[in-house]
């Protein structure tokens, strides 16, 4: 393909008029353009668009006060462009700009597309050339891999939805608007395995609802979008005074989402809530979207005495007394009229998490009202949903020799030397970024009190647990540390090196996995619930611990490397993981990378 041209013009009536008259393609050809603000030393906001009549579209933008801040236009012109290619490049630029984080991207997210079209792969190769030329012109600072490895990119509301995600979003918004019209309460459940994009749906919904609420009649809504019909004055009025919040129970993920909201127009970090924020709120919420709802707490001994007292005070305020059977799900219901829960019951990892029977009732109630939306398309692990099912069957002790599906080029390996696996993870990080060691909670956290101490010592390797609880994956030094379930749940890695400790073992005689209670070092992970008279058996803990490893083993997008401490469990993993005859040997232990 011939290289694209990038033309620059002043965003003014005179600048546009002169540019339009100079070439017929400026008024009758598919192009993609970027508006930015050149008035100050630092570029702060951008808008990306596509059109087949650039002259007419520029005049529309000039007449729109919302675009008055912009002073410059870059137009991408390519003699091979068609409408589909232009839409695709527009979507890519929006996502890259949002992911880099230097700008406030002023677009809505209703027009992000991922359609198939003739020679799409060739066009997408040319997009990288466009990116590099825009980067040379100062619009980008970081490379595409650096941008795409960032949380701002991964958690951005400017995402291409899978068909099932898009249908769920459309049905939920349609139902919510109807419920607001009839003043009816509602509860919806979006359920999916790891990597099906539950958090993405939550963030996308927050942005879409804000765009519908705040759009101006002069805004350019993508007419081909399945959400375009929502952008009408009556829906704007329905949402105008709505108080909407996103509840994120996990501390680390919550901080990352706040950064995304800080960079997203019409969203605010103050909308990101803990369950305690909801319970203590002075005012009710119209809509609460609850991400990782399986991590909401039941009444149990909290992480601090302060939170124990807060739990009691919230129950007393909301229900008139401290009822130990009331949980954080009850707080959500008491403080909001409409709720959207995103969950996976197989990702409960602590006794304090909502009990399975509560989650089952929640999903059953949603099914009965036709507000249950299952997600199955795997968006994280390149091996697809078969890999997630394989991991869960493996952790149930159900897999024998030759039962491993074909995972294509997904890089799954089993190691018997931790030093070897560590070197390979470091090599993958140098190649792709975002390769980390993660482990089950089978070692005491000595380094929390003594920074000179090591927590994990195996095969001559000395390692420390994550030195910070918030955004550990992106923190300095994380490549030399080991992350726990509490720092990685909800995140993507390119490669995950998973250490399975002696908390999980295998009995070859009964062919079943079991737990070593003394080797499980998360005090809160095995604490009995004396307030409610609940005592957790070894079988109960086995479910939590296998759920933890199920989460850890599904973090890696490109590959997962595994080291198993228990010899019997390692032998069981080996017969399930090693390649069958005729398959590539990439998943056996290999020499170090060159």
UniProtKB/TrEMBL annotation:
Ranges where the GIY-YIG domain occurs: 28-105
Protein name: DNA/RNA helicase domain-containing protein
Matching CDD domains: GIY-YIG_COG3410
PROSITE patterns named among the record's database cross-references: GIY_YIG
Pfam name, any one: SLFN-g3_helicase
GO molecular function: helicase activity
Lineage: Bacteria, Bacillati, Actinomycetota, Actinomycetes, Micrococcales
InterPro entries, per the entry: AAA+_ATPase, GIY-YIG_endonuc, P-loop_NTPase, SLFN_3-like_DNA/RNA_helicase
Domain of life: Bacteria
Alphabetically ordered keywords of this record: ATP-binding, Helicase, Hydrolase, Nucleotide-binding
